[in-house]
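PT: before anyone asks, these are the final sequences, not the draft ones from last week. 497 residues across everything. Please model them as a single complex and drop the result in this thread when it's through.
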Amino acid sequence: MHTVIHPSPSDALQFIKQHHSSKPEKTMLLIIGECMVDYHGRAKSLLDWGERLLLIKQDGTVLVHQPIMREPVNWQPTGSITEFTIKDNQLFLNCRNRKPPEKMKVAFRQLMLVAATTLIDHANLIIAGMEVDVVNQIVDNPTMIEEGLRIVKREKPVKTGAIDLYGFDKEHIPVVIEVKRSLATISSVHQLRMYVNDIKKDRTEPKVRGILCAPKVPDMVKKLLEEQRLEWREVKRNVVIPDNRQRKLTEF
Amino acid sequence: MFNTKIKSDIIKGVIDVTSPLVNEAKFNISSKGISIRAVDPAHVAMVDLELKSTAFEEYNADDMELGIDLDKLNGIMKLANTGDLVTMEYDEESNRLIVKIGNLVRRMGLLDTAGMPDSKVPHLDLPAKAMVKASELSKGVRASEAVSDHLALSVDKDSFELFAEGDTDTVNLKLPKTLLLELHAPGKFKSLFSIDYFSNMIKPVKSDDPISINIGNDNPIRVEFDFAEKHGHVTYLLAPRIESE
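LR: through. Structure below.
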């Protein structure tokens, strides 16, 4: 790990050239200082002077973080190329991405810290078994519920609670979807029925469909759903624990 | 047309062979019989199953594809006792498979086969072959399951060997040529496999029946056996694991 504290812009440039520019694909670069960000691409934005943290990851990803909030205020994706220059005694970063064509310019007039290091990390994140996983899967691929389904809102508030997913089928009939992480229960049927009634009242629609999604729907629950003229889908969670050593048949 | 009568055990056998890899399968129907080819979602294993029309008590069929939910078919087959005859008929009008077990009639909705791709069989050069009795092999696999999640299979000119190594324990099963039904190996060949997959592949085989194994070096394994009194044949392919450093 190499660091330099309170460097002048030209010292910072020299440091970056020495520790980052020769092997950017192996170096993580961190810059803290007062900067301005100018972005042109899918949109235009200008972020005036402020004290921020800028990160360039080993795959070219660039992130500009303000002192608060989770998300970066500006960013460039994997594979972006960053060049460094000095102009008007400021350190300029020119970040380019080809597809889509976009450019992000960052000017630092005050630098607090520049650090460069190589991080080694071969692990993959494994997330399993969250209700939100199934919700995301449905949002990403509504056809897993049925052909022509459009999801328009998640966590839609209604009188009796919040609907996990709300959308319309291909006939433009409103569809209420309630997602359960494990077993569908009798009470999930009542919950779904109340949501469907809420939408019926709100929209004064005679027909609203309700679908209960769970990895397993017991026969008794299916029967109750049928009586209530509600539907169900057994949606399996797509949890694949990556196994780096297992090869695939497609490799042969 | 698909109008057949068959022993329930044979259909149960088809399900036991196919369901460890996929929940849904495309049954390719022709006048000669039924074939199923499927790859598991992780692309690690493939099953290729042939069931000749001679396995059926009655068989009348034209070329067609039936998309079958194996869990559902399994549920239906659980209603049948060993030796029961099952009638299976395709009803074109309702796109359902009508399954009759005694006086019970179950109409089963079919799946759209458009979303079920035809899997390509990889071209493999597997120089060594051993024929092993199922009971011997399953003993070795059961022992390995207790110590590790993967096992090594190797064949040389004198023997077939199974080896599993856990953190503290190991399992070794060595079958000399005299205990094998067939052995052919121009050298020593060894590959590593997931026990989970491998154990599911040999589970459906009757203990006295032979299992044919084709193996190479760090290549997939080909596991083959007959079922339904040789009217059916199963070929499994299983991709290897990479040896740990």
